[in-house]
Design a protein that fits this description.
Structural class: mainly alpha
Low-confidence stretches: none
Order of helices and strands: EHHEHHHHHH
Shape: flat
Largest sheet: 2 strands, antiparallel
Strand content: under 5%
Helix content: 55-70%
Mean pLDDT: 89
Length: 139
């Protein structure tokens, strides 16, 4: 006879999956494990504190990087190590400092190169598939 054990996750894992900054969450969220059912409920019907955190922050570094359209490494290079609020992010976007302009250009170049490589690999794979088809037809 097996008993079903409810899956749970650490608060840090749940915060990461929810895209929120854990230290800004309510203490009861930070204190104990979150069951899968609780997590699903938070996603389906987010309480006011979760809606407010997602809207106004402070936001964790991955969310800050995404909103600024730069990499997390770019945040580190710029010296931003703390969570930022939506207002702080908006201010940076409204009057971007030189480091942000450089990081956004760098991030765009890396993204474009990754896209080019992926397309080249897909083209090579298509040619290999066509060559294989031709070989199969001839045999």
């Amino acid at each position: 006879m097996t008993s079903e054990k409810s899956q749970s996750m650490k608060p840090a894992t749940a915060a990461k999956k929810l895209g929120i900054y854990l230290p800004a969450a309510p203490q009861e969220f930070q204190d104990g494990p979150i069951s899968r059912a609780q997590f699903d409920e938070l996603q389906a019907n987010p309480p006011e504190w979760l809606v407010d955190l997602r809207r106004n922050g402070p936001h964790p570094r991955p969310v800050v990087a995404q909103k600024l359209n730069i990499s997390i490494s770019g945040l580190t290079r710029s010296g931003i190590t703390d969570a930022l609020t939506t207002a702080e992010i908006t201010a940076l976007l409204a009057a971007p400092p030189a480091w942000l302009v450089e990081e956004r250009a760098s991030f765009a170049a890396v993204r474009d190169e990754a896209k080019r490589v992926k397309e080249a690999e897909a083209k090579k794979a298509r040619k290999a598939a066509q060559a294989e088809q031709q070989a199969n037809k001839q045999s």
